[in-house]
Amino acid sequence: MNYLPQEIIRRKRDGHSLSREEIDFFVEGLTSGAISESQVAAFAMAIYFQGLGREECVALTLAMRDSGNVMEWRSESLDGPVIDKHSTGGVGDLVSLVLGPLLAACGAYVPMISGRGLGHTGGTLDKLESIPGYNTAPDNSLFRGTVRSAGVAIIGQTGLLAPADARLYAIRDVTATVESIGLITASILSKKLAAGLDALVMDVKVGDGAFMPTTEASRELARSIAEVATGAGTPTTALLTDMNQSLANSAGNAIEVREAIEFLTTSKRNDRLETVILELGAEVLQTSGLSTSEQEAFNTLRQALESGQAAEQFARMVCALGGPGDLLERPESHLPLGPVVLEARPAQGGTVTAIDTRELGLVIVRLGGGRTDPGQEIDHRVGLDEMASLGEEVGSERPLAVVHAASEEDAQQAAAEVCAAFTVGDGAPEAFPVIHQRVMAE
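Structure (tokenized):
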């Protein structure tokens, strides 16, 4: 049936539910260019105000997924499930760098489509591009071959995956409609489900450094993603995880890859980071059927980590995608940091009682480790290390963080901004659980 775009927009504007056929028609026009930018903007604004029901969101997700290539893995005769994880992003969130290889070491196959930094949040692709030679945009043959041989391949979205989403997002970005839960859900899942997954786990951040502005909004997004992905045929659970402080000890690009390698190859691991990685891993191992209980999943993950198998999977992925063969043995040689190193010390000693985590992310951006313009080149060397945690004692012997910068001026400015982002006093900080809540489809 041939629909009129303006009639679909009118129906959504007036609060009616759209049929799968209407949504398919609109997405087809969105992809081909038959529907104008003004009509797409009006459609997005109508959804922003009226929302999407579950079935509408499933239909929009599947239509955008099917607007481009959808990968299938059956022809590869893989001996394990195809699974993935996605995060809404935060500061020091290097989970993907560890969890992808860790899941591969547990018998899964992980074709992870990741993104770049957005606002104050770091991007997995930017981190991986600090590795010399690493190809974040391989052709399909290399991508599939890497997944098959290494068990994991972390790459970027190509123009062939969910092109309808790329156009819709670009228009949302300039029409103040980014914050729609339904549109965020469809945008995330159209790309993830195009990878041909058997199961997915979602990491939705909560707190000052989170993408979503409130805990309630984070919870709503987690439930929407779990229900829509499951409704679209990919069993999915979500965890609400804390982002009221940096997840890792470091934040930046090369410096986070260094910490990920240290996590995989030694026993020096940030406790909060380890908790999030293991909890997410246990969720998706159970959802995919690789583990039959939570305890079995934790045991499998710990064995894969402690045996060095997860580190081996990471090394295989890096080599297959063009990176150095001795990255695990010589990370400092391949991942240089900013030449100017400066400790950010508090004006007076005391206990860290609060952290403006979003501001710490913006410190990285201003150092050159993030973007203020989409086409901007970033400096992979800059970042923060040894960041203090909530409740930690700081002072003359323990700085708030160590700044790695390209110049003395940048380092001084960043150190001052870091000091302003930490509140140091005598009281105890508010206690935040690492895992706030588990969310499943109802």
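The chain has a mean pLDDT of 95. The chain has three domains: 5-50, 74-330, 336-425.
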